[in-house]
Specification:
The structure is a homodimer. The first copy, chain A, contains 8 helices and no strands. The first copy, chain A, is mostly helical. Chain A is elongated, with a radius of gyration of 21 Å. Chains A and B meet through helix 1, helix 7 and helix 8 of A and helix 1, helix 7 and helix 8 of B. Chain A binds a DNA duplex through helix 2. Chains A, B: InterPro entries: Homeodomain-like_sf, HTH-type_TetR-like_transc_reg, HTH_TetR, MT1864/Rv1816-like_C, Tet_transcr_reg_TetR-rel_C_sf.
DNA sequence: AGCTCATGTGAACGGCTTTTACATGAGCCG
DNA sequence: CGGCTCATGTAAAAGCCGTTCACATGAGCT
């Protein structure tokens, strides 16, 4: 709700003052209220106070508006992930988990962006700049995975960073998509999506042999002596 | 394929010979072709050879048709998962992975069902029988997780089966949703979605302390040096 | 001032969803 | 067989949406 619309002084456009921006804002509002399917082009125009034909001066069609929103979403997403990753501070594992939480936070706090990005049904590769934005966002996760992979304990095969990144992305998206959204409309859980994802990531990292000093679940306390940290496939000798 | 009257069977209804079934079939076709958003009630009616108002004798509205399809999808899904799990044969871990693959196979081979179930945007709890079907399907995963949790190594705290089931579900759904569908329209991967998910599940299970030798052999078969028996992502360099 | 082009309007077309009044024919009962 | 009833399908219409097109308007430049 709190968006920087207050300083529209400088950019007074032609008739409306920039309509394009107003349409994007209206679409965001509508999508967050009724989902990307329920959003209508005409409604956005009405909300901006223009005729139903006006939006066509700024977007080829309805899909292009949604794609624009998705692209902005990816940009904001990238920025959020970058901030969460914080170049791996204070330590790689902690920062990595923070990225996962940022993923969930984004899905929850920006449902309009999120659904435009992942649930709108439009092909990712329709717009090349959209795909580029998507890849830039994913690059953050990939970079984080790269750093993490470099930390893999010696004496065992190093996990491919790309694969780790895809795994983390899939976990985050899975949790967000199934349980993450909405105060109401989703399935009920024994724990919060955040805790669920955190536990999942920790177990996963432990499976790769990373020292995960924190406890992986609410129920599981400080679980293992330091000597038994690695998986059964390659004990450090 | 004509859904008209070439099925001269005993089940001839009133005028059309059961229209309800024909509509469901038509909807499945349309959804698999154009996604749940692109599917139109009128098209289904046309494909069934009836007037646009006829479907309203069988479904309250368009959403109820989609919900019907989602429900059937969950039933078929449950059946598929049950079959894949096969009561944990030949061993629990193998059967568990097979369930994950079945998840992906379903998403790929029944995109219409899958998208009606997970991407149609209709609230899961709108229809109580729909939610029940969804929970029955999830119960298979949960039962499998239960069996797996019972096998946890004695030295470690036993992971909550419910949490494991949710983790597996999230992984499977995440992979399926991001990379699983389509010969064309998704992001490009360094490995198949099946392999990606299998590796993810194996790493996860290893993180829980499970022996994850892929071959249905003994659990204690790793007195080999680390790295000889390949990890979940193949041979290390 | 006058030109030009981006921006917005009004009207229109076709399609979709849904409702309403009406038609039809299947199954049943006497 | 005749007639009743109700489920099933039709026709028509209202209302909305996406999209297009001819036309209006006013911003900024010369």
């Amino acid at each position: 709700m709190s968006w920087r619309k207050d300083q529209g002084r400088a950019e007074r456009g032609y008739h409306h003052g920039n309509l394009k921006e107003a349409l994007l804002q209206a679409a965001l509002d509508l999508i967050s209220k009724k989902g990307p399917a329920g959003f209508t082009f005409a409604d956005a125009a009405r909300m901006a106070g223009v005729s139903p034909a006006a939006p066509y001066r700024h977007f080829r069609d309805r899909d292009e508006l949604i794609a624009s929103i998705a692209q902005r979403g990816f940009e904001q997403f990238e920025s959020l992930l970058t901030q969460a990753w914080d170049d791996g501070r204070p330590d790689t594992v902690t920062a990595f988990e923070r990225v996962g939480k940022a993923y969930l936070a984004f899905a929850r706090e920006e449902p309009a962006f999120y659904s435009a990005m992942f649930e709108s049904g439009l092909p990712v590769d329709s717009n090349p700049t959209l795909m580029a934005a998507s890849e830039r966002a994913f690059a953050i996760i990939r970079a984080a995975a790269e750093r993490l992979a470099a930390l893999a304990p010696p004496g065992m095969p190093r996990p491919p960073a790309m694969m780790m990144a895809l795994h983390i992305w899939a976990m985050s998206h899975g949790v967000a998509s199934l349980f993450g959204r909405g105060d109401a409309a989703r399935r009920k859980l024994p724990m919060s999506p955040e805790d669920l994802l955190e536990a999942e990531v920790l177990i996963y990292l432990r499976g790769l042999g990373f020292p995960t000093d924190r406890r992986p679940g609410t129920a599981a306390a400080d679980d293992k002596p330091a000597g038994e940290r690695s998986g059964p496939w390659g004990k450090p000798k």
